[in-house]
Design brief:
This protein is of the alpha/beta class and 286 residues long. The protein has helices at 6-10, 23-32, 65-68, 83-93, 114-130, 150-156, 173-185, 204-215, 226-235, 240-250, 262-267, 274-280; strands at 12-15, 36-41, 52-55, 71-76, 99-103, 134-139, 158-161, 192-196, 220-223. Helix 5 links the parallel strand 5 (99-103) and strand 6. The structure holds NADP nicotinamide-adenine-dinucleotide phosphate.
Length: 286
């Protein structure tokens, strides 16, 4: 674990995606520890105890200018095909930013990896070129991705997995938040890219069995055929070649299914399991 860095302790910290899976945990941890936080959202009705809520859109650089003034350190994320441009909008607008913790993805690590890997590689390059000291967070599959199954579980008791039954080591978003806060507040993380996973290897069918056990209700598991998963991606504008590559890499037993010790090594905390996350979020599936 790195040493606390007093210089980072006093400055304003911007959290983008503050209402999201990871961002809300970052805001909660920082405010609980008494840090000055600006929480970015597009929704002006958002309230965070102990944080300054700032309204802006990562796609609209003009909305970011004022709220980046005086920011010392930032957690930056972007979503989908817009991620590189969104990250660039923050990096170009921020003056005086002296530390950036970027949400990336474990998908950048294999030599290929499909469309998500390309988006995140480009975003990482944008930050590297900015000259701002950086730390990259490269998580694998989030436990919260299981929420994609919530509607079909509630309606039909069925899980349809777009990634087949490929092994995963799902990570709790709040464990990513704990790592982000460590990188935001302490020294020794500059120029480091952290691969992050949960502590246990499982499979979508194993996750389905566990959800059924917790819900006390039998669930059916179905693998979406690879061709149908490719068609679903091309329907959203991905080229056929990139969709095929993406589906292939998501169905390979590789880094996404290999538990790593990084969360514990960086935070000293025991990373939470899919069972932990599912127990906390069971109402979403009822
Ligand atoms: N899910 C996975 O398995 C996985 C794995 C590796 C990496 N990742 C990466 O993790 C990131 C997603 O993190 P997350 O799950 O914490 O995010 P999230 O919960 O999906 O979204 C975070 C927040 O982003 C805000 N947002 C959306 N569009 C915006 C815009 N144009 N301008 C400003 N804010 C906007 C929304 O807040 P408001 O509505 O309040 O504005 C939303 O609550 C992505 O970069 C993804 O590629 C995900």
């Amino acid at each position: 674990m790195a040493r606390p860095d007093q210089r980072a302790g006093g400055g304003m910290i911007l959290v983008t995606g503050a209402t999201g899976n990871v961002g809300r945990g970052i805001v909660g941890r920082l405010t609980a520890a008494g840090h000055k936080v600006r929480a970015l959202t597009r929704n002006p009705d958002t309230v965070f105890d102990g944080a300054e809520v700032v309204v802006g859109d990562l796609d609209e650089p003009g909305t970011l200018r004022d709220l980046l003034t005086g920011v010392d350190t930032a957690y930056v994320m972007g979503l989908g095909p817009r991620v590189t441009e969104q990250v660039a909008n923050v990096v170009r607008t921020a003056e005086g930013l002296r530390r950036i913790v970027l949400m990336s993805s474990l998908s950048v690590e294999p030599a290929r990896g499909g469309v998500v890997a390309r988006w995140h590689r480009e975003a990482e390059d944008t930050v590297r070129r900015s000259g701002i000291p950086w730390t990259f967070l490269r998580p694998g599959v989030f436990t919260s991705n299981a929420l994609q199954w919530a509607a079909s579980i509630r309606a039909e008791g069925v899980v349809r997995s777009m990634t087949g039954d490929t092994p995963v080591a799902p990570i709790h978003p709040d464990d990513i938040a704990a790592v982000a806060v460590t990188a935001l507040l302490s020294s020794g993380h500059e120029g480091r890219a952290y691969s992050l996973t949960g502590p246990e290897r499982t499979t979508p069918s194993g996750q389905t069995r566990l959800l059924g056990e917790l819900l006390e209700r039998p669930l059916t598991f179905e693998e979406v055929p690879a061709e149908a998963a490719v068609r679903a991606m091309t329907a959203f504008g991905t080229s056929e070649e990139e969709a095929e590559e993406s589906v292939r890499s998501l169905r390979q037993d590789g880094p996404f299914g290999t538990p790593l010790p990084t969360v514990h090594d960086l935070t000293g905390l025991a990373p939470r399991t899919f069972r932990d996350w599912a127990s906390e979020n069971l109402d979403a599936f009822r």
